[in-house]
Amino acid sequence: MRKILEVRHLSKIYGKGCPRCIESTGPEADTNICPHCGSVVAIHDVSFDLHEGEILGLMGESGSGKSTVVKNLYFDQTPTSGSARFIEGDATHEMFNLNAAQQRRLRNQRFGMVYQNPHLGLNFGISSGGNIAERLLMSDVSHYGEIRKRAKELLSRTEVLLSRMDESPAAFSGGMQQRVQIAKALATNPPLLYLDEVTTGLDLSVQARILDLILEIQQERNTAMIVVTHDLGVIRLLTGRALVMKYGRVIESGLTDQILEDPQHAYTQRLVASAL
Amino acid sequence: MQTPILKINGFAKHFTLHEQGKQIPSSHNVNLEVYAGELTALIGPTGAGKSSVLKGIYRTYLPSAGEILYCDRHGELVDLAQVDEYRMLQLRHEEIGFVTQFLFCLPRQSTLDVVAHPLVVRGESRESGRNKAAEMLAALNLPERLWSISPATFSGGEKQRVNLARGLVAKPRLLLLDEPTASLDPVTAERVIGIIEGIKQEGVAMLAIFHHPELTQRLGDRVVELTPPSAFLKTQAINQQEKVYA
Q: Cβ distance B84 to B63 under 8 Å?
């Protein structure tokens, strides 16, 4: 399988930063706030590769920086330093060197994002079908009948009742909103999907069906995914490899079953022991 | 002379428990070879670290020492103790199978799909995968009425057969078996032995943990005996500042 994403030394610091930020933060320092200048080192020196059709997990507790990684890769934020390459056929895009229009093209057509909070991923002012149409319009599909047809296909694939596709997602349950978000993310059939705590806060039976749906989609379309979660069950179910993060640093990486059965770092051992 | 598919030199595995500040030894100084069309039997008392060897090869455990030289289908030599994670995942999908004693599966997936999964991952159609899965389940004597339901609620012996079917149907180049007949009745165990003999004929290389000397004698072309770590090694206090795997 081909590599589709290469992330190197990605860092994001909130605040003005100072020369001592890096040495004064991280798991050893037991904080991500620099005591000298007050800046927050959200992530530092994160590197990994992702291949076609692969699901990579980012795990860690709140504030470990796992969401910041995908937000930077989806251009929701701009990293302080580091690089990311998106490889598509013969073309390689240095993601953070692209201009705004090029970044928008990748974001609208080649990447998909599903947020924990549906308000971030969906426009509640328009219908569910309209949300999908919006994304299709941004990727140059403009025939009304075609858009309507694609929206129907996507919503039925993600098991949203078609009789409700003209309602606003505001009227939907949390699980249903996530399904609309997934349908929207998949609208352009992107090779890369970011899933940020997509099942957090949903009740168990709804979680299970959404996770099944994600696995089915991965098998049908060979979509590569980065799954951000603090839930070890989700990590075990979905991912083949995982990175464990703490205070903005990757403290351990490995095959998912190895991280769960033979964790190396003291923090990962505590994490696994407290969950299983 | 034939070259081995798998050659292990000086393998060791110990666990570092940071919270308790302890080091628990498991396997130590393991040397063995596995050849195509042959079965190497791994024997020894409980606690000798037999399962740790299999998990070390499959990389469910991270080996502490030694090399695990695997000759892949292109004839390239790979040290599984060092190989990068993505390559290891590919080898698991394409070449190396593992039948453990425990089955992890979704409570929402039918037995046929569980067994067909390794074939589907390799790109076979769901239909064809399910057909092969059905054949293997029939050969292993699992009643057909169970095929469409999830193995999550099955008995120990039923689960073991599902697990075996999944490992055997994929016909990997190297198959790791952890007590493949442990919870089976004699009739079914006999069928499993027949199937193992069959895939051996087809050239599959196997490394298997056996507890019954009779099985070792019938199926093993080579035998490797492990000894438990000596008593004084049992638990050692370790320095809290152990190096961290990153």
A: no
Q: What whole-number distance in Å separates Cα of residue B52 and Cα of residue B59? A: 10
Rounded to whole angstroms, the Cα distance separating A266 from B246 reads 12
CATH number, residue A76: 3.40.50.300
Distance in angstroms (rounded) separating the CA atoms of residues B93 and B80: 14
Instruction: Return the pLDDT at B69.
Output: 97
Which amino acid type is present at position B144? E
The vertex-B228 CA angle with B30 and B51, nearest 5°, equals 60
Contact between chains at B89 and A266 (C-beta distance less than 8 A): no
Q: Is there a contact between B86 and A51 if contact means CB atoms under 8 Å apart?
A: yes
Question: Which are the contacts of B42, defined by CB distance < 8 A and separation ≥ 6?
Answer: B32, B50, B53, B54, B207, B208, B209, B210, B224, B226
Please give the model's pTM, rounded to 2 decimal places.
0.90
Looking at the complex, report in whole angstroms how far the Cα of residue A43 sits from the nearest Cα belonging to chain B.
16
pLDDT band at B239 (very low <50, low <70, confident <90, very high): very low
**Structural domain total, chain A:** 1
